[in-house]
Amino acid sequence: MGDATVQQESVLIVEDMALVALDIRKTLEHHGYTVTAVAHSGEDAVASVRAVPPDFILMDIVLAGRLDGIETARIIRDEVGIRSLFLTSHGTRTHLKNAMTVAPLGYLLKPFNPEQLLASVEVALRQVRTDKELDKERQLMRSVLAHIPDPVALKDVALNYQAVNPAFCRLAGTPAAAILGTSDETLFSAERARHRRELEQSVLQNGSPVTEEESKMLGAHQAWFTSVTAPVFAPDETVNGLLVLWRDITEHVLANQRVLQSELRLRTLFEGSAVGIFELNPAGKPLRANPACSRLLGFESPGQLESETRNVRALLDDASGVVRVLSDALARNSSAAMEVTLRRRDGELFSGDVRLQAVRGADGKLEYVFGFVQDITARAAVEAENEKRRQTAHRRHRLSVLGELAAGVAHEIGQPLTGISMTAEEILFSAMDGTLANSDGRSKAEEILEYVERISAIIDHVRSFSRGDMESRHELFSLNNTVAHALLMVRSQYEAHGISVGTEFADELPAVYGAQLEVEQVILNLLSNSRYAVERHFHNRMEEKAGGYIALSTYEDEEMVVCEILDNGMGIHPDQLKNVFSPFYTTKPPGEGTGLGLAISLGIAQELGGTIQIESEPGAYTVARLRLPRGEHA
């Protein structure tokens, strides 16, 4: 007996006779049981259980105090679920009937010997252990049911609900308390309840699960479910209930509907699109084409195109070159685009825009190519005409800039010419009066050559600037040098008009990649705007004309190289500032501006990956910033 009780189960002794309680305690502790406490009244027993819950209770039915053993056992069982083994010297029918109402673990009649006590305790503990295992299983079942996201219900053979989970309650729209013990007739329509009863009775009879799909209105929305009704078998392999599981397949059904609708829309789009759409296998054989594609290529129908064209190469003018370029593009990316020359069925050539999308399998191998084709013959002609107009606008603007530079260049050349004239006269007079020394002659000659070289540099720069092919020469160049070249042509003219010009160039400024002369054109245009703003601001204040200035600076800002031009001219009104980059918009009076300068300048900057920013305060200043991506140190 001692070996059987090594688990150290605990017991509370409730006995109002102290000597009997002590004897019981010694016997139990001697055989390895733990006695949590000895209580002599019902009130003490309830307090002890709350403090230290035992596995079970040895409860005397007759106790001193307000509570007898049966009522005490009822309170403890209802409160914490611990059952009692009753001790009594009154084995009357009335006592037994009253004790049965609290589901006791058994009865032990007084007087009893230790062997009888231990045998009763062991039987009671077996029941306690069984109860605990059943409680664990019930708790596990409740937990499983509660956490299953799908509706689940257990029914008995009478088809009444015995257990349901929260998901089923939500499906039925009824709390569990109102469902348990009822049948489908109380939850669903008569027709649905009748159908379910017939199905469930067949499962009870056949012992095989049944799956079906059904729909139900949940509020204003229709929902679809798959239900599985399966038999629950007893240990003797008879069916003693049903397990019903519902799986919400609404999203699946709606997704299938959306797929069908999407396929219908795609087919409608494919068949009705004005753009040619086609599909090729990896070898280049057309698999499918829409009517627009077959018409574009001169075939009577998509079927004729697919049957007569063994390879897409037959539809290309420069097949090998085009296929090579597109194949390389598809190998690097999943898509490719190219303007190509296509050949119709009758041999006529036309310009087409072809866009391809590669579709690959999980292993990365090409499965097929999906493509679009459009006839761009008319568009290409329009683009060529637009490019011609753009070039014309550039040339007109360049001529306008050259016209503005003419006075500045004349001024720049005039100064060294004056120097040459004066130096030549000095040499002539010295030679006539015999005072010209060899060293003086050489020095004067070198001075003349310096003036000539300066004139040459100005003329060469103007000639380079005036050439129309300057956009094509892209190279690394110094922004500092470009600003200096622009100032070379206009600085003297500006200063002659009373405008002081200041510069502050950053050292070791990173180079810029692009067409240097185009950038110089941008700077000259910004300088021209600054000069105009300063002259207009001071034109009625001649005595203060010397106060006008233009300050140029260069610096590096994060990844950009910046040329900033600041002037103290008339400024730009906010309403005008938002439009200054619009083509043909100008703040100058009629006849004084084309409205193309800033639009063209911004286009040049953007082609190089940069931009132009302008901020201004009317009557105070304007700052123009040319921002270009940096390359490497020049």
How do the strands and helices of this protein lay out in sequence?
Layout: E1 10-14, H1 18-30, E2 34-39, H2 42-51, E3 56-60, H3 69-80, E4 84-88, H4 93-100, E5 106-109, H5 114-147, E6 152-155, E7 161-164, H6 166-172, H7 176-179, H8 190-206, E8 210-218, E9 221-233, E10 239-248, H9 250-272, E11 276-280, E12 286-289, H10 291-296, H11 302-308, H12 319-332, E13 335-343, E14 349-360, E15 366-375, H13 377-432, H14 438-466, E16 475-477, H15 479-496, E17 500-504, E18 512-514, H16 516-538, E19 549-557, E20 560-567, H17 574-577, H18 597-607, E21 611-617, E22 621-629
Parallel strand pairs: 1-2, 1-3, 3-4, 4-5, 17-19
Antiparallel strand pairs: 6-7, 6-10, 8-9, 9-10, 11-12, 11-15, 13-14, 14-15, 16-18, 19-20, 20-22, 21-22
Question: In words, what does this structure look like?
Answer:
Strand 6 (152-155) and strand 7 (161-164) form a beta hairpin. The protein starts with 9 loop residues before the first strand and ends in a 5-residue tail after the last strand. The protein folds into 5 domains: 3-142, Response regulator (Rossmann fold, 3-Layer(aba) Sandwich), CATH 3.40.50.2300; 148-253, 2-Layer Sandwich (Beta-Lactamase), CATH 3.30.450; 273-374, 2-Layer Sandwich (Beta-Lactamase); 376-466, Helix Hairpins; 469-634, Histidine kinase-like ATPase, C-terminal domain (Heat Shock Protein 90), CATH 3.30.565. It is α+β, with helices and mostly antiparallel strands and 634 residues long. It has 18 helices and 22 strands. Helices cover 47% and strands 24% of the residues. It has helices spanning 18-30, 42-51, 69-80, 93-100, 114-147, 166-172, 176-179, 190-206, 250-272, 291-296, 302-308, 319-332, 377-432, 438-466, 479-496, 516-538, 574-577, 597-607; strands spanning 10-14, 34-39, 56-60, 84-88, 106-109, 152-155, 161-164, 210-218, 221-233, 239-248, 276-280, 286-289, 335-343, 349-360, 366-375, 475-477, 500-504, 512-514, 549-557, 560-567, 611-617, 621-629. A 5-stranded parallel beta sheet has the order 2-1-3-4-5, sandwiched between helices. Strands 7-6-10-9-8 form a 5-stranded antiparallel beta sheet, with helices on both faces. Residues 1-6 have low confidence and may be disordered.
